[in-house]
Specification:
The chain is mainly β. It has one domain: CheA-289, Domain 4 (OB fold (Dihydrolipoamide Acetyltransferase, E2P)), CATH 2.40.50.180. The chain has two helices and eleven strands; from the N terminus they run βββββαββββββα. The strands form two sheets. Strands 8-1-2-11-10-9 form a six-stranded mixed sheet, with no helix packed on it. A hairpin with a 2-residue loop joins strand 1 and strand 2. The relative contact order is 0.21.
């Protein structure tokens, strides 16, 4: 008798791809009073805000680079990248250093956030797929929406957020005609 067990896969709404099992531990944090989460396995460390050296000609959400124990790490303002309202900087702001894996290789990037909350163990039955927001709003950077009581935490796919660090994330690409020379 075989001990192999067949595993049923569900199809994610609106796609032909099987739904991912998103259950696991997430580092939760705040941006503009909203709660977000990153898979804990993508988080290398959390550090206080330190001197950030600006990089010329970078996108507005790229704050610059930091020297983290002799390693140069780019820093992205996640609130700016996600087009969230600005809040006053305070001592609770921090940088979440994440590990990214893509075709360019493995590297680290720091995400500037308002504050870190906690590590949560989120069950699969607490996670809903991202809502459909229309064709002009990209939600592919959202893994899912975790429900905890009356709260909703957006679980983010950090690799999809930083794939194009200089590009827009709002789903509306600039055309050459919309760029005016100064």
């Amino acid at each position: 008798m075989s001990t192999d067990t067949a595993v049923a896969t569900e199809t994610a709404p609106g796609t032909e791809m099987p739904a991912k099992n998103l259950a696991g531990k997430y580092l939760t944090f705040y941006l503009a009073k909203e709660q977000f989460g990153l898979p804990i396995l993508k988080v290398r460390e959390i550090i206080g805000v330190m001197k950030i050296t600006a990089v010329p000609n970078s996108a507005p959400h790229i704050r610059g680079v930091i020297n983290l124990r002799g390693k140069i790490v780019p820093v992205m303002d996640l609130r700016e990248k996600l087009h969230l309202s600005c809040v006053e900087k305070n001592r609770r702001n921090c940088i979440i250093v994440t590990e990214i894996e893509d075709e360019a290789g493995d590297y680290e990037i720091g995400l500037l956030v308002d504050s870190v909350s906690e590590v949560l163990d989120i069950n699969e039955n607490e996670i809903e797929p991202p809502p459909v927001m229309g064709h002009n709003v990209k939600t592919d950077c959202i893994l899912g929406m975790a429900q905890s009581g009356q709260d909703v935490k957006m679980l983010l796919d950090v690799e999809k957020i930083v794939v194009d660090m200089n590009g827009p994330l709002n789903g509306i690409e600039e055309s050459e005609e919309s760029i005016v020379a100064v």
